[in-house]
Specification:
GO terms for molecular function: catalytic activity; nucleotide binding. With 189 residues, the chain is of the alpha+beta class. It has seven helices and five strands; from the N terminus they run H-H-H-H-E-E-E-H-E-E-H-H. It has a single domain, classed as HIT family, subunit A (2-Layer Sandwich), CATH 3.30.428.10. Strands 1-2-3-5-4 form a five-stranded antiparallel sheet.
Length: 189
Amino acid sequence: MTDEQSGFAGLESSADFAAVPDAFQRLWTPHRMVYIEGGPTPHEENCPFCAAPKLDDETALIVARGEHAYVLLNLFPYNSGHLLVCPYRHVALYDDATAEEVAEIAELTQIAMRVVRQVSNCDGFNIGMNQGRVAGAGVADHLHQHIVPRWATDANFFPIIAETKAIPRLLGETRQAIADAWPKAAPTS
């Protein structure tokens, strides 16, 4: 089909198409469709932290597996290398976790810090848990600890002015780099 037949004759750029310009900048995030299509309460029936260990590591973004807990990349990272440490068991609160789960979560967190520091040369970390929906937990029914690497130079205007985070590395690349650098010996918990 020629340009004349398709009705696009003489059009040279997207600016030539019918549109009403606005002041918005577009940041394309197709990976968020999983949550958009899930509706307002996507995790009530299908817990992503229960489903992830059943998948292969690359698909689930898992970087390491322990006996009681595992480590995966956050699908919606605050920064490159934003990890989550989750028990395999579906438990909502830290004080409901077993001593073995708590110990392994702590050990995996320490290993993750060392590995991310090695891989990304970060200057510090934010580490924490949001317990319950009211505390900001996106997946409130399954315990998970955030490990967010920080750099002295990671501040920019995007989050403040545009409510947007710029993530310089793709999730798959980040997962592979962290998984490759992860110590091959299993945690000792």
